Amino acid sequence: LPGLDPLSAVWVGIICLVFSSRLSTMKAASICPNDQTGCHLLPLANLFDRVIQHSARMHGISDDLHSEFELYFLPSKNQIGRVSRNCHTSTILTPNGKENAQRIAREELAEIILKLLVAWRDPLWHFHQSMSQHDEFTNFSSNKSLEMSDMVHELRKGVLKVVEKMQMLGIISNSVGDTGSPEALLTSDSAEWRFMKDYDLLYCFRRDSNKIQNYLKILKCRIVPKHGC
Amino acid sequence: MAVSLSYDLLLLLVISSLDWSSTPGSAFLTDHNRMTSSAPVEPHFTECMSRDLETFRCWWSPGTFHNLSSPEELRVFYLKRNSPSSEWKECPEYSHLNRECFFDANHTSIWIPYCLQLRGQNNITYFNEDDCFSVENIVRPDPPVSLNWTLLIVSPSGLSYDVMVSWEPPPSADVSTGWMRIEYEIQYRERNATTWEALETQPHTQQTIYGLQAGTEYEVHIRTKMKGFPKFGDFSDSIFVKVTEIPLRESAVLLTLVLTFGVAGILILIMLIVVSHQQRLMMILLPPVPAPKIKGIDSELLKKGKLEELDFILNGGGLGGLPTYISDYYQDEPWVEFIEVDEEDADCGEKEDQKSSDTQRLLGLPQRSVGCFSADSHPDDDSGRASCYDTDLSEQDTHLLAASLLPGQPEDEEAFLHPDEKAPASETNKSPLIQTESEGKPTWINTDLYAQVSNVMPSGGVVLSPGQQLRIQENTEKESQKKGTLGEDTSKLNKPQFQLLVVDPDGSGYTSEITARQISTPPSSLVPGEGYQTIYPQPMETKPAAPSEPNQSPYILPDSPQTRLFAPVADYTVVQELDTHQSLLLNLPTQQPPPPCLPQHPLKAPVAIGYVTPDLLGNLSS
């Protein structure tokens, strides 16, 4: 480099070496000096935490939107409303309780989460489109719907990464598919959600985001129980 | 109709009798319409609640018009809408005492809508569409347990403090597995206040309350809710927080504050005083160094090194000379001899100080306005002469200088008259004396006993300093006054108490004793040998007197006793030899007639000052 003294170049080189060595050690050992039990799972636990936080935020946004919708539509007393209508994701078999969630296999749980996330990708996008077209909705709501649909995408990617990591660590088997059955399942139900009203859509998504959040939490505490469960 | 009326009455009775407070929590269904209306109220569910997201309970009320014969008549059926082919099922667990239906974990499904209905006898069904719900929406977590507080910090004044409140999550809520994510809300109030202060909901199990007042007791309680869901649980039991005041500390703080401000104020005052009286303080603390005492000279000039100006001032600045205040300034210092350079001859004449006049004559300074020279102007005592020798002097100055050696001239009659009280006649008599001199006139005022010999002529004459001239003049005047009365010579002779010296008109400055004798003997009758008389053997050469009236020539010729008497003689003579009579022999005077015309050598006297340079001597001699 022009204008670079040999002395400063030497210093830069030394610093680079030091950092690279540190980075390599980080990659290799990943914070664990020796192979303690559970120590190598720390990055996985951190990944789980981030994903759970993401899902919590998604649920919060869906809750806000739902509450806002209730102002425009009928204010239900116990937030049930027209429950008779089923959500399009009802076909997906999901554990309905804590024990059930703890009992099923980890792979299955992970797969359910992914199914849900995939199922909501298109409907939320369309929901956002319809929201932006309506004039009575404020910008706040429109931004939230866009954010919601983006978050579903990102959360799905995050969960996929977690699954990959788990498969890499050998915690779960490689049976968890990504683009396999969820897509097939979705196509069969693709028509259903188009008939849902916006309000029902919001209600269903609010419910499903809560499901996702809970499932992730349970999954984390089943796989990495020592890290903040 | 009748049935409805009876039902209404029954309802009213039931409402009045029922204890609504027994139902846990707030009303699940906001059935204000039903309560306020007088219409009969059918059996309904008051509330369904879940504490831990795993189980839930429902409470019902029978209503107003229902036959309350047996509580077991009403039955609870629920429907789980998780499949289209679901059917109504009965409550798994009854608690008829509380009119409560409890759903345990096996019968609880989350995220699945439940619908409940009451069925009475004869399969009368009381169902409301609004009674459908999902369990996650009805969760009201239990309040936290194990509340306690610790004092975090007390303010320096001791008036307020911060408190850290910590607690445990409710045991029923499964927070550890993350199944429930709970948020907490703290509320506090003063002991006897009515309204609560609420802090922001947060998920941690401890929180700090800031700004509590010392000495006041506070009541604190906490409630919980599920994150993302709106319903709060009940409040926990209250705890009481109190910190007593520490008055000593407070007073100490106040004292320190007062002291600090007082000291600061005093310092500011001192600073202001110092700044305002800066000049005086500087004078006191750092007195100025005394300036050099050079009389008449501004020390600033010396500092600046302006020698030209200095010289100008010292040289009289056009005969101006130095101001006279200097003598007054340094009067108390006798060791300082000031020879003032004055324009006025009067100043020189007024100088009563004999010393100065003596000094002047000693130095041979001309009494003329050229004048009074400052001794300080030149380093050595003869410095005054240097200015006299200053070639820059004008011709007039030279005339003056010359005239200074001669008897006074009529130009300065006043000055001339000043030293002695002369009759106007003497003036006239003096006038020839004065007129004998050609020009410009030294004053004969300062006539002293002593006169310095300015120069000694090779012919034997002596050039006297002006002082001598004046004295001589005095004598001459007196003699001339009483010319006619020779008999009074004695008186005249008696008068002069001074000493006369034989002066060689050649300017040699010496007189021989013979001359002295000659002078002295004839006047022995005249002068009973009292003092010396200045005799000018050849007064002509040194004194350009105009012998217009030889009779009145001021100079006493050696022949005449008068002349002998009044021959100007220098104050000092040099002893040539000792004769046999142990008498001093001064310079042999040359027997020469007194030169009638003194003015023959009128201008030959730049010698006038103390010494004569060889050049001037040559002038004189020629």
From TrEMBL, chain A:
Entry keywords, A to Z: Disulfide bond, Hormone, Secreted, Signal
Chief location of this protein within or outside the cell: secreted
Signal peptide: 1-28
One function term, GO molecular function aspect: hormone activity
Pfam families documented for this protein: Hormone_1
Family: Belongs to the somatotropin/prolactin family.
Stated name of the protein: Prolactin 2
Native source organism of the sequence: Nothobranchius furzeri
Automatic annotation (TrEMBL), chain B:
Family matches, as CDD domains: FN3
Record SMART domains: FN3 (SM00060)
Keyword Cell inner membrane: no
GO cellular component terms attached to this protein's record: external side of plasma membrane
Main location: membrane
Subcellular location: Membrane
Official protein name in the record: Growth hormone receptor a
Organism annotation: Nothobranchius furzeri (Turquoise killifish)
